């Protein structure tokens, strides 16, 4: 189970020591998960990772300057992607599938453009293309919740789940799984790292038609997913992504927000595994 998977460390050529966890069968290309804003090894839903790891070699990690990884957090998505590639190279990986959630989806898109030969298939969850209208920064209420020094249960419920009884109940269930691991937990993200990450998020969202057109260069199969009531990344951006990517299809999950993949973890895992197969 993911809550029992030990923390590991790999030393990369860029001088960074990356913290990561890995488990699942090794007979297929690894599935590498790329984390959302201020996310760490702990921020993945254990129930979701367990379902994915039943059939895939799953790798989660802290990028540079995050959690247990060393170094200074990059201030652009491209730098984050280059650092993630350093981590993958340090593990000796030559072919992978990527699943990027939110900001991790930004990084996944950039990796697909920088190193297309590395990527087999791509899953983009609750994320947005670079330069699209309506992605330049977050609303004041979202910023107030996600920039707090302690992102507690209320912050998760407001930001990641729809404001309905059913979705909020799913959020409480997720939070119970989130705190279940009691030994060797990852470190929280520092204020300095959060500020650097948010600069990267804002820079990614500056309206730029030419940047948006870059998506046409990604010719790998892509699964685009989102929640129908996402306050952080509105679902219409999933349709923008799908329209720009040559080999993509989209699935929007009902009564869910930015954390739809935690609320609908069983259905989402099944869809991802079928897509990757």
UniProtKB/TrEMBL annotation:
Descriptive protein name: Alpha/beta hydrolase
GO molecular function: monoacylglycerol lipase activity
PANTHER family per UniProt: MONOACYLGLYCEROL LIPASE, MONOACYLGLYCEROL LIPASE ABHD6
Species of the source: Streptomyces griseoviridis
GO cellular component: membrane
Keywords: Hydrolase
Domain AB hydrolase-1, chain residue ranges per copy: 29-264
Record Gene3D superfamilies: alpha/beta hydrolase
InterPro entries for this protein: AB_hydrolase_1, AB_hydrolase_fold, AB_hydrolase_sf
One Gene Ontology biological process: acylglycerol catabolic process
SUPFAM superfamilies, sorted: alpha/beta-Hydrolases (SSF53474)
């Amino acid at each position: 189970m993911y809550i029992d998977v030990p923390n590991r460390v790999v030393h990369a050529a860029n001088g960074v020591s990356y913290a990561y966890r890995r488990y699942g069968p090794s007979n297929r290309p690894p599935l590498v998960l790329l984390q959302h804003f201020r996310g760490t090894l702990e921020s993945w839903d254990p129930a979701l990772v367990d379902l994915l790891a039943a059939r895939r070699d799953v790798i989660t990690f802290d990028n540079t300057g995050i959690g247990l990884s060393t170094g200074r957090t990059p201030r652009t998505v491209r730098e984050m992607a280059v650092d993630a590639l350093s981590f993958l190279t340090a593990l000796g990986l030559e072919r992978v599938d990527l699943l990027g959630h939110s900001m991790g989806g930004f990084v996944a898109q950039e990796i697909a453009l920088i190193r297309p030969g590395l990527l087999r298939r791509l899953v983009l969850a609750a994320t947005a293309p670079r330069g699209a209208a309506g992605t330049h920064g977050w609303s004041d209420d979202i910023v107030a919740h996600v920039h707090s020094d302690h992102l507690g249960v209320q912050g998760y419920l407001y930001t990641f789940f729809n404001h309905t009884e059913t979705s909020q109940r799913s959020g409480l269930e997720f939070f119970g799984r989130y705190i279940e691991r009691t030994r060797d937990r990852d470190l929280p993200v520092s204020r300095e790292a959060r500020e650097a990450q948010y600069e990267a998020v804002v820079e990614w969202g500056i309206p730029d038609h030419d940047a948006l057109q870059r998506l046409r260069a990604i010719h790998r199969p892509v699964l685009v997913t989102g929640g129908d009531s996402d306050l952080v990344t509105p679902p219409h951006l999933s349709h923008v992504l799908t329209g720009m990517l040559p080999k993509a299809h989209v699935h929007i999950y009902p009564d869910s927000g930015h954390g739809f993949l935690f609320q609908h973890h069983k259905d989402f895992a099944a869809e991802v595994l079928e897509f990757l197969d």
